[in-house]
Design goal:
- The chain has about 250 residues and is α/β, with parallel strands linked by helices.
- Helix 4 links the parallel strand 4 and strand 5.
- The protein contains seven helices and seven strands; from the N terminus they run βαβαβαβαβαβααβ.
- It has one domain: Rossmann fold (3-Layer(aba) Sandwich).
- A seven-stranded parallel β-sheet has the order 3-2-1-4-5-6-7, sandwiched between helices.
């Protein structure tokens, strides 16, 4: 009898690009991938913050470098990915939220959120896939969306719309690129304590809503997202593509 062997969660020898790596979920994803053996390129708009993070991670024996990148600038992003790739793994955690009553939505706010959350995510993912296909390499591409990519949310019509859009293009890209061995998935967190969500936690009515909806009885921490990302990046998820992992504490269970 041959006993099945667990596929490896290790990422030794892999190169990973993490966009939005300067704080919050993106920083956690970068740390998790590096701790699993990948060489991680930390990408974000703030070069100074990235340099500080890289120095700290290097002091812990992790392998990283930095890349100043604004995913909303799709032309420059494509140039940077082509120059520094190919990347075996991509995690896109760059995101923007401008919440407010739906009837008060301003076109400028709609465009700003869409340019990062949807357009930026689409073209970053495409750029990394192009590099992999040109190199004849497989890869794992991961966009961080949200539980709000599967449901609606209070005063979040634009945000929800962009995140639903990422879920849609993920399925189509998985169909298009499966023949190249490229997998693409999303991770969908509930509310996580980060600088992006801080304003929400200052509103008692929103806190009551969050506490009521998360069935596990607590808000998520960055560490709760890291395992899902490492799983999708690794050979342990070799048959997983075109889908999402909900790390939402049961929010979408009802």
């Amino acid at each position: 009898m041959t006993i099945p062997q667990l596929p490896s969660f290790k990422l030794n020898g892999k190169r990973a690009l993490v966009a939005g790596a300067s704080s919050g979920i993106g920083l956690g994803c970068a740390a998790g991938l590096a701790q699993s053996g990948a060489h991680v390129t930390l990408a974000a708009r703030s070069a100074d913050k990235l340099a500080d993070i890289a120095a700290e991670m290097t002091s812990l024996g992790l392998s990283v470098d930095v890349l100043e990148m604004d995913v909303a600038n799709v032309e420059r992003t494509a140039e940077l990915v082509a120059e520094h790739g190919p990347f075996d793994i991509m995690v896109n955690s760059a995101g923007l939220a401008r919440h407010g009553p739906t009837l008060d939505t301003k076109p400028d706010d709609f465009d700003a959120v869409s340019d990062i959350n949807l357009k930026g995510a689409y073209f970053l993912t495409m750029a990394v896939a192009k590099g992999l296909i040109a190199a004849g390499k497989p890869g794992s591409l991961i966009n961080i969306t949200s539980q709000m990519a599967h449901v609606g949310g209070i005063e979040r019509a634009v945000y929800c719309g962009t995140k639903h859009g990422v879920e849609g293009f993920t399925k189509s890209m998985a169909i298009d690129w499966g023949q190249h061995g490229i997998r693409i998935n999303t991770v969908c967190p509930t509310f996580v304590r980060t600088p992006l969500t801080a304003p929400t936690f200052e509103q008692p009515d929103k806190v009551e809503w969050i506490n009521r909806m998360i069935k596990l009885g607590r808000v998520a921490e960055v560490e709760d997202i890291m395992g899902a990302v490492v799983f999708l990046a690794s050979d342990a998820s070799a048959m997983v593509t075109g889908t999402s992992i909900l790390v939402d504490g049961g929010w979408t269970a009802e």
